[in-house]
Model the fold of this input.
Amino acid sequence: MLLRHTTATEYKREALTINPAKTCQPVGAMYCALGVHGCLPHSHGSQGCCSYHRSALTRHYKEPVMAATSSFTEGSSVFGGQANLLTGLENIFTIYDPEIVAVHSTCLSETIGDDLPQIIGKARSEGKIPLGKHVIPASTPSYVGSHVTGYANMLKAFVSYFPETTGTKIDQLNILSGWVEPADMRELKRIVSMMGLNAVVLPDTSDVLDTPMTGKYKMYPDGGTTIPDMVSMGDSWHTIALGEFCTRDAATELENKCKVKFSMRELPIGLSATDRFIKALRRYGKVSVPKEVEDERGRLVDVITDMHQYLYGKRVALFGDPDHLVPLTQFLADCGMKPVYVVSGTPGKIFTPLMEKALNGRVPEAKIMNGERADMFQLHQWIKQEGVDLLIGNTYGKYIARDENIPFVRYGFPILDRIGHSYFPSVGYLGGIRLLEKILGVLMDKIDATCPESKFELVM
Amino acid sequence: MATFNILEERRKQVLTKTAEGGEIACGKQSTAGSVSQRACVFCGSRVVLYPIADALHLIHGPVGCAAYTWDIRGSLSSGPQLHRLSFSTDLNEKDVVFGGEKKLYQSLIKLIETYQPKAAFVYSTCIVGVIGDDVKAVCKKVEAETGITVLPVMSEGFSGTKKDGYKAACDALEALVGTGNERRNGKYTINILGDFNLAGELWMLAGYYRKMGVDIVASITGDGRIDEIRHAHTASLNLVQCSGSMMNLAKSMKEKYGIPFKKVSYFGIEDMSEALYEVARFFESDELMEKARALVREEIGTLLPALEKYRKALKGKKAAIYVGGAFKAISLVKALRLIGVQTVVVGSQTGGPDDYALLQKLCDEGTYIVDDSNPLELSHMVQETGADIFIGGVKERPIAYKIGIGFCDHNHERKLALAGYEGMINFAEEVYASALSPVWKFIRK
Done:
């Protein structure tokens, strides 16, 4: 029992996080920047940060992850990191030749007061940034928010830099895709095209972190939102922003800058959230929903119908990122399940009201917690007090799942011990079917493995 | 000279072995802007102390440093598993302004009460160094109040390279060594320094030494225990593997307690056997030497025939090596040679001049020798030399695969023991299984 010390009795913790349900901002900034074509993320801080983030993303995607670092020294911590970033940018453009360098800060560079826009301005005036190349700053102090915040800040940085208004609207929508997998971004594009619409999806990590094997190593893979696409976002009809925590700031920025109005939606995870996404596409794209989309919806409802007896009343504990948890919780409740414990390390006051809306009074006993000390230890204590039938979250859930013998579906970031998340979408109606397949799989595996011989059933 | 693009500042860190030889620059700070594979001071300290399983490891700083080092190293413990949990003071904006000492104090008190560890390590991260928390004072205070040893590890990420992190870890270990005073082992006693019990390798090594009649007082730090480390000064000899990380401790124990040390490696038949003979020679015991010889004879007797299959299949294959320490790289070159594989690229993140000199002597002409490399350089060198297999760590694996060659993890993520005689078979099998995997023929280049 790896977590043998966890007890059901809760004690007051003024400080101290045990087994966090979050990580720090820069890794989110790095992931977001990888979804832009020809972009090299750059970590302005100590070398370890960059190394850890690259390793985390590499373990999750099993793909090479490129990012440069300012490689801070004792000297930089005293005199500031300006010299490091100036040299860094010069070296990057000489050797790695990206179109864009997306610089994010770290706790160290923030605390010593490095001003990224000022340093980048200096680099430009000193000719260290070749003509036609771009350097974008995002402030991502590790001691504020979480990895989700870092993603949001980087996305906002892209949006405040590239989109331009020409005065002539283009027949397209903007979709701010939120922190989802490459497969999900691919699926969003498929849904949009099924609806007969054009859209710029930003960021887009498909064909970046799920690249096919060709025997060639490409530092900048084929995928990612392109510069012309990002520039054109200023002329789009409308922006659909998916996920309050990851995309609201960027959507607001774009509206202020280019007067492109936006609508906030949840990530289209599960039935209701996908319905709302499709509705938004229909409304702002001024199209009707084609039969093939209706059919996909029908198939998802059909699966729920077929299997609802196995889902009904099952108590579920979830942890991870707010933008995933909100629609996922609603989906579980829509299927007759009981999401009883929900934990996210990401702070933000809006989380609880969003969760309450998602639950809509259907699970009065539900406990919801986010921010400080909303960690895996807390979740485990709740589970010790009253058990659950299913656990959903990233790989770090496997300790609890093993100790408590709970069926476990891996979902979120990071997933370090299974494959599939980068290849099969969990958004849209099809994604809903995949989620159900996984949930039912682990629930039924447990029944098969533990039920008495007399009740062992062939047909389920 | 290399035919690909290298940063001007890095030119002296890449060398091609020639008949005349040459010098490689190393031990340098990484060039800013480089996609370096290196990590930081904190990382160095964390990996060295991590395997001590009955200690509390509290990371003082924002949550990231704790999150990224949560159970990522396969250092096995035969007992307590406390090292595999993640504890963080999770500093936020307010703490950055007003200081994190109070949080650190409260966290430590709570943790010691809950987990009853044998000792606690408190790691300083970048930001702690800048906001000026007096970590040492807090540790002292908690130690006085709880009676549990609390050791500060001064590992601010920016304050040097990963090597300086090793040093900070050694400083903390030094404070422990000598605080226990029972002499409880036999005639021939050693400490094993610098094996981290990845995939249970330490258990294998310990088995060999026990067979010879040698007792291990402390393993620092694989399957490590605080109490054993406290008694480490009662051993007669220190065996140092992964010299980069543990040399500081070995040197200080020599100075303080007069315990001599020997640099050893447990990878490959030659080096493993030499590590056993070295101990017998040190104790000037014919009995030990005879037992060591018998053990080696027996092991090699079963090993060599078993290796034959792999040697035949791998003959003429070429390997690229990029690992953390250069001493390991040296063993790898030899081990690969034993199974018929020629090394064409070899490099490390933190090698020293002696290591690189030895590598030059060891390698064939035309071999690339490289310090603190990056993916772009590595992929060019691998393709230019036509390597069939890459030996490296987590960040190198997907690059090797993308180029369409095999890979063997010789870092934290190894799943099979690679040290010792049994490890040599595992290593050969892994290299064989990956280099000759059927998958490579499906790639349409």
Observations:
- Chain B touches chain A through 79 residues (CB under 8 Å).
- Residues 286-314 of chain B form the longest helix (29 residues).
- Residues 8-28+315-414 of chain B form a domain with the Rossmann fold fold (CATH 3.40.50.1980).
- Chain B is about 45% helix and 15% strand.
